[in-house]
Write a structure and sequence with these properties.
- It is a single chain.
- By secondary structure, the protein is α/β, with parallel strands linked by helices.
- Helices cover about 35% and strands about 15% of the residues.
- The protein contains eleven helices and eight strands.
- The protein has an eight-stranded parallel β-sheet with strand order 2-1-3-8-7-4-5-6, with helices on both faces.
- The chain is globular, with a radius of gyration of 17 Å.
Length: about 300
Amino acid sequence: MHKLNVSLIGVPMDLGQTRRGVDMGPSAIRYAGAVERLEAMGYEVIDEGDIEIGISEREVSADTNLRNLSAVTQASTKLANKVHDVVLQNHFPLVLGGDHSIAIGTLAGLSDHYENLGVIWYDAHADLNTGDTSPSGNIHGMPLAVSIGLGHEKLVNIRDYAPKVKPENIVIIGARSVDPGERELIKEKGIKVYTMHEIDRVGMTKVIQDAIIYLRGKNVDGLHLSLDLDGIDPLYTPGVGTPVPGGITYRESHLAMEMLYESEMITSAEFVEVNPILDEKNKTADVAVALMGSLFGEKLM
């Protein structure tokens, strides 16, 4: 991360859920100065542009309750191929969303470069639903399940292999809205979760320290950060589609990013669910860019 050029990939997709506007997230993050922020820190940033997202009639498949399955599969495949190519160039993939279903493509493009990829899922939600457990059919609540090999075969088998990630190599941070089916799956698969209870009780420093020790103990050879802006309290990030009160604070999030940078473990990242329509003067995109700064080593002194 300290040496790699950064490839910025936009994914203007809102098909993984039903609220419009999150497709403008990559533009909002660029407008908030993502490229300029990283360049000022000495990184060479290559803006790869946006993945082309097909037009969908916002259908629900006849054989499943998944919304926009075909369109999400096509977009995820395009993203997976792009991320794969970026890693081949020895660049750091920095993906901008778009709703969190884009993580299906990101992880599919990353994982065949690693024997033992780890994931930090910074989110209010576990995103471990499948078509059988999802109350909504929205695929943005399913990317982590898909990535461990559970869910519709079209999504699970992107780039022709599965799973992309081992359940024991996942750490979820900030969870506070978890569906019953997800709770069962977390227990069944032994997925490491730090809810807001743990963060409140022991503090963000201890949570990140423990997460790093845990993942090092799993011998991960790459570590992807998937950061959903709704992981942060909506007081700081109002422009998200599924806000949940009582989340991680702005300062706690900076501390987490600073510690992840210092760990020298992060090999890729994505920032998702910025919805400018719901935002206040691009506040959420500004937070995303500020957190990118900390993740890439920005210091006050």
